[in-house]
Write a structure and sequence with these properties.
This protein is of the alpha/beta class. The chain has one domain: Lysozyme-like, CATH 3.40.80.10. It is built from three helices and seven strands; from the N terminus they run ββαββββαβα. Strands 4-3-5-1-7 form a five-stranded mixed sheet. A two-stranded parallel sheet has the order 2-6. The longest helix is centred in the middle third of the chain and has 17 residues.
Length: about 150
């Protein structure tokens, strides 16, 4: 079994007013030469949690962090004008909380963060701020949102 110390939340970077199924996600990742979906879980707008990659297989979602992490992606992240936005539905919010809480029960002590929080600390101040984000994904502050589970 892999040593897991990180749970990384992503968005699919797709418009919230359009469906993007787990099959669409798989096809998108295969077009990028991935060996299947890079995330372990995918949360649809209706709250359905899809298992998209075995946990014992490293993900393909955050270069340099894949070996010891579990990746969760939610459907959406862009508004109708293709701008980054927290588009999570109430069902997604609930399912993400349940999934993260469950994973932390199985992998206690993990850090939970968003993909953006893994950007390089360009100014070396010990904090990765918005000006340093490589991307805005997951379009909300995952570390803050799930901090209560990591105490």
């Amino acid at each position: 079994m892999r040593m897991i110390n990180l749970i990384v939340v992503h968005c699919s970077a797709t418009r919230a007013d359009r469906d993007f199924t787990e099959q669409d996600l798989e096809a998108c990742h295969r077009r990028r030469s991935f060996n299947g979906t890079g995330y372990h879980f995918y949360v649809r707008k209706n709250g359905d949690i899809k298992s998209t990659r075995p946990i014992d297989k490293p993900g393909a979602h955050a270069r340099g962090y894949n070996a010891g992490s579990i990746a969760i992606c939610y459907e959406g992240g862009l508004d109708a004008n293709f701008r980054a936005a927290d588009t999570r539905t109430p069902w997604q919010r609930h399912s993400l909380r349940v999934l993260i809480k469950t994973l932390l029960a199985d992998y206690p002590g993990c850090r939970v963060c968003g993909h953006r929080d893994l950007s390089p600390d360009a100014n070396a101040d010990g904090v990765v701020g918005p000006e340093e984000w490589v991307k805005e994904c997951p379009c909300f502050d995952a570390e803050k949102e799930y901090a209560e589970f990591c105490k």
